[in-house]
Amino acid sequence: MQAGINPAQGFVPKKLPKPTTYRKVNPADHPVLILGLTSDTVPLTDLDNSADLNLAQRIATMRHVGQVADLR
C-alpha cells in the first residue's frame, strides 16, 4: 500500500497538516471515547498541539488502549 502512496505524493496538496498515510482497521470496531477540546482563551493551534503532545500520547500508553486516532 505504501508503495502506491509514495509515487502519488507529488499530486497531494503541499498544505496538508500531515503526510498521507494508511492504516489497517476493523470496521466493526467502535470508539469508546471521543474527546473534544475547546477554549475561550487558548488559540486553536496551541490547543491542538497540546492535545497531540500530551493527551494523545499519554492515552496511547495506557493499558488496554489499542489505538488513539486524530479525527480532524
Plain-language structure description:
With 72 residues, the protein is mainly alpha-helical. It has one domain (2-60). 33% of the residues lie in helices and 0% in strands. The protein has 2 helices and no strands. It is flat and about 40 Å long.
Record keyword descriptors for this entry.
flat, 72 residues, mainly alpha
List the helices and strands and how they pair.
Elements: H1 2-8, H2 44-60
- Relative helix content: 25-40%
How far apart the termini lie comes to 23 Å
From the spread of the alpha carbons, the general shape counts as flat
Count of the domains: 1
Specify Rg, calculated over alpha carbons: 15 Å
Which regions are unreliable across 5 or more consecutive residues at pLDDT < 50?
none
Biggest sheet statistics: none
What is the count of helical runs? Answer: 2
What is shown here, in short?
The chain is an all-alpha fold and about 70 residues long.
